[in-house]
Amino acid sequence: LTSANYPDVHRDPRFKKLTSDDLNYFRSILSEQEILQANELEDLSFYNEDWMRKYKGQSKLVLRPKSVEKISLILNYCNDEKIAVVPQGGNTGLVGGSVPIFDELILSLASLNKIRNFDPVSGILKCDAGVILENANNHIMEQNYMFPLDLGAKGSCHVGGVVATNAGGLRLLRYGSLHGSVLGLEVVMPNGRIVNSMHSMRKDNTGYDLKQLFIGSEGTIGIITGVSILTVPRPKAFNVSYLAVESFEDVQKVFVRARQELSEILSAFEFMDSSSQILTKSELKDVIFPLEDEHPFYILIETSGSNKDHDDSKLETFLESVMEEGIVTDGVVAQDETELQNLWKWREMIPEASQANGGVYKYDVSLPLKDLYSLVEATNVRLSEAGLVGVSPKPVVGAIGYGHVGDGNLHLNVAVREYNKDIEKTLEPFVYEFVSSKHGSVSAEHGLGFQKKNYIGYSKSPEEIKMIKDLKAHYDPNAILNPYKYV
Ligand code: FAD
Ligand code: 2HG
Ligand code: ZN
């Protein structure tokens, strides 16, 4: 059997098709609210389809267990019966990893959503995996702490989901990756075994750091049910400035200067190209564009610290110097909280704007800073040469670039009017070859999922891929967890 949506992918016949006996078993351990079964009344497309509406599975069953013990029973049963399972958090992932390809059972973490404990002295938060990131953040903000990770999907994505993808987000530059801030995890293994390592220690050199195996594993080797994470003191003062520069070289110059002159208060450094902001204008109709004229590149700089006067004066000195030298040609600084939020919207709304014409092909790559923008230019040239880009009925609107300059992470988004194979073949493996030729990574922060399952070799050696496969085979010998994806 091939998938109607993916003619090149075949259903693995080792996986059992769900029977009434299976349903009866799930009914014996779960309440009615924890089982969603497709029928005339229940439409499961929210769970079957991803955020971009690019990947679509055909699962007929979603389980939303409320306890770790129930997850353990479900996995134990699925392992024995060889039922394939897709773990799902907030379903905001951008690589098709969180949805089924065929009829896999969807195991949603949405009902496992309690804050377990917060220690206001150490700043360590322990919570269930299904807690929505924004809710976790609101909980600790009351006690003057903040989650070390922030991203546009915060209102929907789960704490467990961001750990499973090792999401990077807007403040990685300041607070580092989840590989550093996660202190412990609770995980249910494919055979149902619960591994509790919800530690609260920053230092623990007792052998392999096992939790790292699950951070960024994308639901392929275990289900994360609990997270222990070191949060950060909530800064008392925030500033956001939105600046214009005339070239990508100048983006880099401002970055170097911002690191030197703003140093410890610099908390985000994002760049956006002109086309990304033009697209966003059509989404942000009721927010006025912050600058009078259009420019080739824009930069959003956030500072945060404990003393507003100190931060203001540092930022002012920095901005005066880069403007006097002509590196920055225009700019504004938010004067109040509303303006600050509005400036952030010009950055955070790009993912949504990029697909407003119908769809988007997303590439999330690490590249040396000097080469970062050349991929966007090369992609636009390639699409033009293929005759695919232009006004309707051409299928491609254009390629835009933006991203986390501080992390060497480019988001190349190709806005399209429809998803089609010609576009995909023009872009892939072209983009991956380009990245590999510059010794970058084909996934900086979104993961591999289904989209990049055939392209891991552009960033990992055969020996590394073999180790990944060995680990998978050892812990998930029946390969029930998230099949058809990158491993
Ligand atoms: P899902 O999408 O449900 O799942 C993602 C993957 O993790 C899947 O493979 C799934 O099987 C697995 N998974 C989920 N939960 C578990 C679990 N408990 N145990 C085991 N496996 C699990 N990413 C960034 O890195 N930086 C950004 O700035 C950023 N911004 C975004 C902005 C928007 C608007 C959107 C839509 C996405 C953005 N992302 C960003 C993508 C990012 O990957 C997700 O938002 C987030 O990490 C996924 O969380 P989720 O709970 O939605 O997981
Ligand atoms: C961001 O930084 C996210 O906004 C999403 O990682 C990027 O949609 C994208 O390509
Ligand atoms: Zn990002």
From TrEMBL:
GO cellular component terms, A-Z: mitochondrion
One Gene Ontology molecular-function label: FAD binding
Cofactor(s) demanded: FAD
Domain FAD-binding PCMH-type span(s) in chain numbering: 55-234
Species for this entry: Saccharomyces kudriavzevii (strain ATCC MYA-4449 / AS 2.2408 / CBS 8840 / NBRC 1802 / NCYC 2889)
Name the UniProt record assigns to this protein: D-lactate ferricytochrome C oxidoreductase
A GO BP annotation: lactate metabolic process
Keywords carried by this UniProt record: FAD, Flavoprotein, Oxidoreductase
Database matches in SUPFAM superfamilies: FAD-binding/transporter-associated domain-like, FAD-linked oxidases, C-terminal domain
Name of the coding gene: SKDI04G0680
Short name of any one Pfam family annotated for the protein: FAD-oxidase_C
Family, as annotated: Belongs to the FAD-binding oxidoreductase/transferase type 4 family.
EC number(s) given by UniProt: 1.1.2.4, 1.1.99.40
Keyword Flavoprotein: yes
Catalytic activity from the UniProt record: (R)-2-hydroxyglutarate + pyruvate = (R)-lactate + 2-oxoglutarate; (R)-lactate + 2 Fe(III)-[cytochrome c] = 2 Fe(II)-[cytochrome c] + pyruvate + 2 H(+)
